[in-house]
Records
---
Amino acid sequence: MRLAGALAIADGRTLVSADPATVSWLTGHVPEIEWGPSPFSAPPIVVLGPDGTVRLVVSEDETEGLHENVEAVTFPGFALEDVDRRGRAIELALSLLDGRVAGALASLYGELARIELDDVGDDLQRARAVKDPNEIAAIRCAIEIADVGQAAARAGLAAGTTELGLWTSVRAAMETAARGRLPVLSDFVTGRRTSDIGGPPGTRTVEAEDFLLVDLVPRVGLYWGDSCATVALGEPPTEVREAHSRVLEALGAAKAATKAGARAGDIDAAARVLVDYPHHTGHGIGLTTHEQPRIVPSSDTVLEPGMVIALEPGCYGDSWGVRVEQVVVVTEDDCDVLSSHDLALQSTT
Amino acid sequence: MRLAGALAIADGRTLVSADPATVSWLTGHVPEIEWGPSPFSAPPIVVLGPDGTVRLVVSEDETEGLHENVEAVTFPGFALEDVDRRGRAIELALSLLDGRVAGALASLYGELARIELDDVGDDLQRARAVKDPNEIAAIRCAIEIADVGQAAARAGLAAGTTELGLWTSVRAAMETAARGRLPVLSDFVTGRRTSDIGGPPGTRTVEAEDFLLVDLVPRVGLYWGDSCATVALGEPPTEVREAHSRVLEALGAAKAATKAGARAGDIDAAARVLVDYPHHTGHGIGLTTHEQPRIVPSSDTVLEPGMVIALEPGCYGDSWGVRVEQVVVVTEDDCDVLSSHDLALQSTT
């Protein structure tokens, strides 16, 4: 019925839309909205051929749950290297258009896009990476709230609770401290789920010897905080304890390498030589959850004083995963750590 | 420092950006992200003149908290009548451009906007307004979750709790029932704050004779639910009880007028003749929180079977406000009510 309705509107033309509601209506794509646009994606675009073929130009990470008749035409998702996902999405969508085209580019500013302009987007990203004192103070506030959440997660972890039950208490603690509702991006997984690196809290019940991987990214006002810890109940297996020690060492090495003039790629290497993980060593944080400078292999980006960076080495086995994360401000000679949450695998109390 | 950085990049040119991070960076504008784009707004656009003048093209409802040096150039915010806010924003932004222009239109698909296409956006909106049985089932699921939240709010309302404390328990109840995290748009105000029509939960402490206005809009999977009730602790003042009775009558009158073939404007009039309020009588709901058909004065839109509509008359005094809301599906002869939460002002238990 939805397809028939759209075909009637298309009336022999190819139909294209980047309006999120129309995309979801025709394809079943569920946009994640609670924490704003993902830095590792681009808005999907649906293309409906006159013959009823439905194609969705979408990140390779977001093809789950699409209607059966939908063909996913994908651009890269999460990656260590920089990818122009938006550019690739447009290229793919254009390649699917044929004949007369009807559309609703509700999210696209047609007229504004037609003006001649010099693209300075990269310059602006670089400028935004260096924070002024007001911005650092704002990020500090967000990190204090993340610290509150980490303490609540550690204190509340107990056999018999569910991930979701613990999560709601953690969010409540952060919102109470911030005196209002907060957008919060998070990984909140226990037991074997930690081997997935991350994921939302689910219905799993915490068991006696479990551990929790908790990554909290709250926005307070305009700025985001970020923090991660792994917390064990009882005595974790030896390989988990050893991995956690290596990850802490890697975090220490990354911090030791972080100062004005350092190459981002060298910081990445300093941590990664101790333990490897299928993600970045760190990333800038501020007005978005993940921005310049990216601490990834081979990056030639040179750090400047005032850059604010989340460092988050991890280690993941077949049935477990551990990660720790702190946020630092780059200074002339080293870096100041803004995070103050407990990083210990086992609480001493 | 931020302004100086941007001026250096602009280098004598006018700078324009619709990238949300750049907009926030230069103006202090805080985008609401937890529940997706507002149907009563459009993305703001910042224009920085070569002389350092910062202008923000923004909804008149979103000018709070801007940096002191920022001039807001506004387009209409919430309104009963239909407004092309996006078109107005583009027009305003174009009028501010002068000379050479540099920019980062990160949220704008330039290439895609250049293709020739027939705009069928309105047709798609009309088509999306009529839901098929799968969509109605999905909306029903979201409304069941809203019902759970309403019950939790009613049960938890007690003197001494804060709005925020009660809110976190309501959200937890909904997420537990849905077995996962949920985007939730809400109004959650008590006491005198109800006269504001809505607003987020704050730090206010509930008092013995208070009442709560609770409007819950959770998204479950792809589809949104919507519900509102007003709940009193103790004995509310006579004028509040009388207003609540009139609002219930208005809801009944709106439902009685809702069936295939009815004019949206007539449904609005049926409710509004009993009690007046500075907002719509209702709105379509589905893939977005507010869509066609809009139940507003003088609308000639004719209802069709399968349209899903939230009806929400209210009444607001100087120090109090009451509102009730149910969601219905339009049928040939009348409408089916999907909501089953308690609408009573005073709980009988």
Note: The first strand of chain B starts at residue 14 and ends at 17.
---
Amino acid sequence: MTRLHDPAAHTFASDNYAGAHPEVLQAMIEANGGHVASYGADPYTRRLGEVVAEVFGEGASLDPVLTGTGANVAALQALVPRWGAVICATTAHVYTDEGGAPERLGGIKLLTVPTPDGKFTPELIDRQAYGWGDQQRPQPLAVTITQSTELGTVYTPDELRAITDRSHAHGMTVHLDGARLANAAASLGVPLRALTRDAGVDSVSLGGTKNGLVLGESVVTFSEEARAGLVFLRKMDAQLASKMRFTSAQFLAMFEDDLWLRSATRANAMATRLGAALASLPGVTITQAVEANAVFVVLPIEAVEPLRAAHHFYDWNRATGEVRLMCSFDTTEEHVDRLVADLRALLG
Amino acid sequence: MTRLHDPAAHTFASDNYAGAHPEVLQAMIEANGGHVASYGADPYTRRLGEVVAEVFGEGASLDPVLTGTGANVAALQALVPRWGAVICATTAHVYTDEGGAPERLGGIKLLTVPTPDGKFTPELIDRQAYGWGDQQRPQPLAVTITQSTELGTVYTPDELRAITDRSHAHGMTVHLDGARLANAAASLGVPLRALTRDAGVDSVSLGGTKNGLVLGESVVTFSEEARAGLVFLRKMDAQLASKMRFTSAQFLAMFEDDLWLRSATRANAMATRLGAALASLPGVTITQAVEANAVFVVLPIEAVEPLRAAHHFYDWNRATGEVRLMCSFDTTEEHVDRLVADLRALLG
Amino acid sequence: MTRLHDPAAHTFASDNYAGAHPEVLQAMIEANGGHVASYGADPYTRRLGEVVAEVFGEGASLDPVLTGTGANVAALQALVPRWGAVICATTAHVYTDEGGAPERLGGIKLLTVPTPDGKFTPELIDRQAYGWGDQQRPQPLAVTITQSTELGTVYTPDELRAITDRSHAHGMTVHLDGARLANAAASLGVPLRALTRDAGVDSVSLGGTKNGLVLGESVVTFSEEARAGLVFLRKMDAQLASKMRFTSAQFLAMFEDDLWLRSATRANAMATRLGAALASLPGVTITQAVEANAVFVVLPIEAVEPLRAAHHFYDWNRATGEVRLMCSFDTTEEHVDRLVADLRALLG
Amino acid sequence: MTRLHDPAAHTFASDNYAGAHPEVLQAMIEANGGHVASYGADPYTRRLGEVVAEVFGEGASLDPVLTGTGANVAALQALVPRWGAVICATTAHVYTDEGGAPERLGGIKLLTVPTPDGKFTPELIDRQAYGWGDQQRPQPLAVTITQSTELGTVYTPDELRAITDRSHAHGMTVHLDGARLANAAASLGVPLRALTRDAGVDSVSLGGTKNGLVLGESVVTFSEEARAGLVFLRKMDAQLASKMRFTSAQFLAMFEDDLWLRSATRANAMATRLGAALASLPGVTITQAVEANAVFVVLPIEAVEPLRAAHHFYDWNRATGEVRLMCSFDTTEEHVDRLVADLRALLG
């Protein structure tokens, strides 16, 4: 097959515009050849189990799945019974961007709360945390939060603990959508465990693709309760890879030599550099704290389209001119500086 | 990441015990690097569209998905409305091996018919083709067949045409589960198109993984009706890969230089060789015609476990001692001959 | 069976605290005895079809179902395909009060818009009317509105027409949740047809229970498209009564001698009387226009519980002290005047 | 409303062709008038709870629902988690006659077993009772049986106990579809409790409509586990009546003065009389033991249509000429004798 694209192209559109980290592809090549058992009974998936116990502590499980939507749906289905509902932010990916899969595939009612910055607090949770026993209300039995958030902000371990304590006090479990958990951990300089198990989180959708995998997501759980039925749900949600060795090998690559951290650290650093440079430009307003690998910014309206033509990024709010600039594991200082220079030129 | 398995190991367990064909991994490496648009707006997916139009004719579409279960569910959801039911064989993978996904994820009622050899006929279809307009009966609006079948048998183009004609006469569409369509086409020496579009099939789950991909399945359709809503269903069924360039690149590798045909031809030839050799042994009964890459055989009971220890295969029917021996794209004459020699030795 | 309640008791809690209108029970007695075909093939259901054609015009169909939730779910499932989403107000009963049935039973994604008074406008619809063709967005293909609304307000025929015109221009159909449609028609002094078919509405959940039936709801449609699959959906949504003669007889009683109008007119008149009397009291604020059979009012906080003890009603907003007072077909001037007198006494 | 049918008409088509027992309608009239709380917080539903504890013993609960399909779906959803499957007979109503509701509304995979007479045995259950822990197999976690069966046969308490013991030994619960449980109890001369709770059954769909109610079904459970989430499931399955007093009043009428028993005894006696008379006629073959209120019989082919024109009944198997004759609470000796006389005349 012939290459059909320019391997030097770069955008600020999304961290899934990037390809895979070369170490990840190399791991897949190592895992190839010969026969191993399918559906997870292979040595790579077995080894991954050991690595996960090292990273998250004894009793932690990681079950590979195929998409972030699939991870969220299966994780939430395992957490709540058929009559359970899940509280989430109005901006949550699970509510706005998954084609209705949680409701339609998962049969899960989502109870939404508007948040100022994509982050929940105990008080915000309380707005939907009521009505247990009321037969006409979907029963709020879990909360799902996103880390780093859809707005590029990050929960500290203390903020997470406040949320999980309040949720648990209400008899609700806590799920964390960690499509970009690596970026949050890198940002805070803490291990993955500090933002999940040690903060009281019950179940995590741990993302791989946005961190540099070809294709790989997972559900990480810390108890038998949180994992109840998960392997059956994974199959019935069409998330079970037959040649699972290849998915597991990617995750092994991600954990080995801290590839996840190296990739996230770079992406975050580029966002910080970008945010700082933009903030110094006239007529440019940074709208969210730059805490992970995204920069939300309002640009002078006449600069948006010319800049987009060269660097590609998405609108966040057409009404206000707010756009989202996303950095990836392969974003370089040069990419950032070129965008800033182009914008400076446009602003005259 | 370190290799954890023996790349020389071989089994007769399943074609998903095999790894990926090296040309497939090479295509993924070519597709890597730089940024391209996600969710299918990349040059590899675009090129794949052109290749599909060459292979299946103008107007054909191939939408990549992630699992065979996901392909079947999304394809059937696109074919029938909420109140539609789908007729299938009692042995169909979609009915027995997909964790209830068609019913539970897809909301599709399956109406089953026992078949002698996994193959439908117009007469067998008629057993469930009734009750349109009866408000208490799920409305039979599609038929799904498997090619090559779960029993290693193959439909000829004429047999397919008889089925699709009858189904269409009843106002029902026809879906083909082609997880091993390549093996059927190789067996019959006809192009993929002859077994699908030209035979009147409306929608196909075209498999890649069992033919040598890392991970890749797809839905191929030949009309706007059969593809209605498919891209939305793909997302809500959690089958949409963000870095789709890698899935599409695998399919491109499969179609280029007829890799699909080379791989299927080899697997089939090994099954033929195996079947012929086994048939000549005393006390051994071949139970299904060997028409693709599987051999169904009743072995002398005392030979089963020792042989399994060395070559690994699955029971098909414990009551009768029938086992299934599956050949893959990487099965060699040596693998086959070794199994036959081992069995001959066991039989004394 | 012995009577266990006080038949003179009255509340302002809900129109489903009332029993059935005596003419309704009389119709059930008439329909009893002997054998008639089940599942709708009886003379009462047949006659109902004729009556419906008189009320709503040729080509209109009424399919009896069992609950308001069931009516809404089946009607919406018939209107939109699996990938369709439905736009509704944040206060819509279908979103807040149906136990998640539309999402979980119906597989329908709801796209919500906050409204000031429970009423949609073309501009409010536009807030969610976008993204057709975007594979990650549930496709907005229908709008559902409530008449009279959950806040006791009423759409005029012109307001409805503006909504249906805009929706149709977007390629979306319009469903009307008419659990209290009778109250709206009585309020405006127009026939049911003027608020539905003639206003461009495609499908209606026409309520019976809140208008004085024992148990009976229905889906009214005006085209084959809007009714597609409805009888199959009714069965698979567990809404098909076997002895349908009794449900149909209730609806016949409702339409004959304009019982629906007499009942709704009385309930509305009592709400008007109540609203007017309350508005004249010091410290009492009517919060929504009294256009149907509900009065939304903020009462002096110290009066709420004593008044509730005698007249029973529900809180609408605990934060503001807003309560909802609901009038029924059997509410009398005396009931209203007694509540007002009691409140006046409490206010000193 | 005018009467539109002949109250003297009688058929052998189905027990839902009959109307309601006059005592049932009288109970609804008693329950009418004035205001009581809706959704089950009324004195009739409260009293029903006490009666149920008398009939089935302390700790038993009866939750009214609206259709047999709704009862079965909600009961099974409460018994098994999302990944659970339910074993049933191939002839089970839940599998063949409910429009796919268990699968599509309930998300429940049904695992079927052919039975000779509609009755399960421990050995038949074992045919599907395997595969726990196999991630690709829907997990068999409950068994559902029908009493009296779809073929008019009856399980004895000992037969039930054998089934529940085997099921429980497998870790599976047992649901009983009791649309005609009254007929079975009347046939065996035992209380309802002997065929349910005392026989180890966990959950029952207790039918009312076929026993003479206007409209009323229910789920009866004997433990908190079997009832888990049932009231929430009832709402989300659209089975919650707002004016529940009327449903509960019907059930009170059914239990008071043993109306259920009187009605079932009469229907059974008529079937016995009919079966005995038919068996004595030449060329007539009774095909199932007449143990409840149904007679399955093969009639001489030339007699079928003339007899059907006068007495209306359904074909059971067109290939063999087998028909089903159903007796109801209002079937009389005269009805039976007239059919027999007519048949005798036809046979010359």
Note: The mean pLDDT of chain A is 96.
---
Amino acid sequence: MARTLGALLFHDFEVLDLFGPLEMFGNMPGQVQVVTVAERAGPVRSAQGPRVQADHGLPDCPRLDLLLIPGGIGTRTAVENARLTSWLAERAAEVEVMMTVCTGTSLLAQAGLLDGRRATTNKMFFSWPETTWPAVHWVREARWVEDGKFWTSSGVSAGIDMALAVVARLADQQTADFLATATEYEWHRDASWDPFARVHGLV
Amino acid sequence: MARTLGALLFHDFEVLDLFGPLEMFGNMPGQVQVVTVAERAGPVRSAQGPRVQADHGLPDCPRLDLLLIPGGIGTRTAVENARLTSWLAERAAEVEVMMTVCTGTSLLAQAGLLDGRRATTNKMFFSWPETTWPAVHWVREARWVEDGKFWTSSGVSAGIDMALAVVARLADQQTADFLATATEYEWHRDASWDPFARVHGLV
């Protein structure tokens, strides 16, 4: 039976954080079905301008197997939304894999889901999570970090590499390789590959 | 004054073809403003599931400086839409840069805009354009190809590399470098870099 992936939308989310991973999961017909969810159903404006339709509001969102949380400048406001972070905490119990890209990690940190866990996030704004949620073991140099069901990734394009690693885990390596080749994507398969930690002065 | 970029939507477009480049152009506030356009205004379903809102229909689309055309399985139907290909031919006269990603190139070929020009497209389905539009000089090995105002790219993720090259041309190298670093993207700056031509048996 197909897994249902919920892709979270909020005002001023970052488009590639969301659609990089969805390019991969959305090309697994019969295996993954993508639904979009936001505080309320309807169009949600991205930080880059285009509006994406939320299929469901938080209360009517179907049961999810996978949950994808993008980052973007909108996370600064979204972390203050207790309805949203409570919903994430509630859904964390049911999902098989919870994924964040970029500053989307802050939403899980705010929900308390990463306390005592290893996680990473955008390398350009690393001091914000490090100082705000000190109970998280922030990993400064990593393309992505896996800890239990929580997969967190570095900035924007890192989400694509993480998504392919999740596909390799849930389906198989062959499926992940096929998706990377079909999308002509040079997949960074090594979670420790992270030249941007140095570029942004973290190591 | 800011340039206006029109991002074309049609049923079953490929999400990363569109949102890879928009990640870059959409993060140039004051320099580029992104609008979405489709045959009719309203939600348009992507091949991966999520629906994106078209701000404008073809008749009420504002004057554009840049036009971005994604690919996806929906191009097979879209090439038969004469209203759409006529609109592209008409808008080609006014824009400064016309960009296609993946099989999106087929729409320009069908509009006759690439006759006698060099162009590239998705490497997995290359025989379709080669046999359908033989008046185009199809380049089998290239990440992207520039010919006059027409920039065409290989499959899916190649659009991101092309977009950064266009940014470097329209703004400057520093802006393109900043966007690549901020999005933690390993930019392939060389238009002749194309391992996928070999993977897909084209060379």
Note: Chain B has one domain: 3-199.
